[in-house]
Amino acid sequence: MRIGIVAYWFNRGQGVVARQLRGALDELGHDTFVLARPTRATNIRPSWVDRSDVWDQPGVSEASAYEIPWDDYQRWSDATRPEIVMFDQNYGFEEVERLRANGIRTIGRFVWEHFSAQHVEPAGRAFETIYSLTGCERERYAEFGIESPRVRWGCHPSPFEYAEDERPRRAPIRFTFPGGFMSKRKPFEQVIAAFSSVKGRDIRLTFKAQVERRRWEIRKLTWRDSRIEVIWDDLPTDRHLRGFAACDVCLAPSRWEGLGLHLYEATALGLPIICNDNPPMNEVVRDGENGLLVAGIADGTARSGITGFRPNEQALAAAIARIRDPELLSELSAGARAARERLAWSNTVADLDALLRP
Question: How confident is the model at residue 77 (pLDDT cuts 50, 70, 90)?
Answer without folding.
Answer: very high
